[in-house]
Amino acid sequence: MSSTQQIASFRKVSAGILASAHLASQEDRPKVTKKEISLVLKRVAPALGIDGTAYHVLDILLGLVQPDDFQAGKRPVVAISNQRLAEYTRRTTRTVTRCLKKLVEAGVLAYRDSPTGRRYVYRGSEGALEQAYGLDFSPACFNLEAFKVQADAFQRRIKAEQEARRAVTRFSRAIADMAELEPVEFHGFAARAQAIVIRDELNVAEKAALLESLYAQVLALHEAHSLKNKDKMSCAGDIDVSPLFITTPTDSLGSNSQPTCSNEQYTKFPSDNGFAVDMALEKEPCGGRTETQRPKSQVGRGGGGKFPETNLDGVSIGLIQSACSSVQAELGVGLSSWPALCGAAEQLRMLIGLSPSGYQLAVERQGRYLAAACLAVVAEKALRDPEHIASPGGYFRAMIDRAGEGKLHLHKSLHGLV
């Protein structure tokens, strides 16, 4: 079979058509498979601008080409008329002609025209091509490695744009929440953030960078205000408090069947966070009966030693993962384990506009697991219904306060979101 590549005289030749014809006329075609060609072409199609009807035509041609024709000594040619392609795609023949020209100029196909302009394939007794005129996939074989690089670059660019769009949403929302928290100090920042978002001359990556810089200024100003207010607080009214010592004999402790105060506190707070335990021991010292201690009836019924429910009772990481679907989609993270949830806490904190000091205080009071779970719940509710929660940061602090009072039922909120 002749390898000379011919282009009919009725075609309007362009540089892309000539380049594809030159590749198809070469004998040393790289050895590839139909499967490999199909996967790469479908990945690179968006980067080449092949979409809509052109992509439909490419899919049809890939389905018609024979796998054996990609072997050495053969030629991957598809002989199908424009009229038949128009019937398959439900488009006009002129539309099909334009789509084929786009594929040829992109380096996917090459015209292999017969003297009469018809497309046909003649095979010998053993199935080998003797004459083949139609649409040749040889240029795609030569351009396969370049297409792989182009497809990878396109995927990286799409991923970067997605991350930038998420960052724009996250930073603009955080700045707006800070403006609602302190309208006087941060109102100007909210207006500047809105102006950045609506600037058409900036791409999404530039908007994300500007908003991140603006949010850093907001955080710096917030920290400065917090430090200034802290310096104004006077410690003149503090009084010395004598330490409380346990004078109960050891024998009585060993003979007491009721759980001790220390056991109750260590059971209530998660063992993963020493801050929570230390705070518990400071707020509820053992010894004599005080107003902050719970009545014995709340510790257990009938002397059975049953401890009160903690704020994480009934809460599993699987429940959090099922309830916080919008958060995972927005941030592009998976909450499949407690370390993963704690690792996403910084993004969740920025999403709801909570200051770093506010989150650190919540961790010290209730532990990092409960604080991260509350962040996920608040962020999920804010994403689903932004108008329902005017101040997500204040909502989070209220949850931590309720947890300190033993009134937080986190598992009910999670089941409601599910």
UniProtKB/TrEMBL annotation:
<dbReference type="Pfam" id="PF11800">
    <property type="entry name" value="RP-C_C"/>
</dbReference>
<dbReference type="InterPro" id="IPR021760">
    <property type="entry name" value="RepC_C"/>
</dbReference>
<feature type="domain" description="Plasmid replication protein C N-terminal">
    <location>
        <begin position="11"/>
        <end position="180"/>
    </location>
</feature>
<dbReference type="InterPro" id="IPR036388">
    <property type="entry name" value="WH-like_DNA-bd_sf"/>
</dbReference>
<dbReference type="InterPro" id="IPR047611">
    <property type="entry name" value="RepABC_RepC"/>
</dbReference>
<keyword id="KW-0614">Plasmid</keyword>
<feature type="region of interest" description="Disordered">
    <location>
        <begin position="286"/>
        <end position="307"/>
    </location>
</feature>
<dbReference type="Pfam" id="PF03428">
    <property type="entry name" value="RP-C"/>
</dbReference>
<protein>
    <submittedName>
        <fullName>Replication protein</fullName>
    </submittedName>
</protein>
<feature type="domain" description="Plasmid replication protein C C-terminal">
    <location>
        <begin position="317"/>
        <end position="417"/>
    </location>
</feature>
<dbReference type="InterPro" id="IPR005090">
    <property type="entry name" value="RepC_N"/>
</dbReference>
<dbReference type="InterPro" id="IPR036390">
    <property type="entry name" value="WH_DNA-bd_sf"/>
</dbReference>
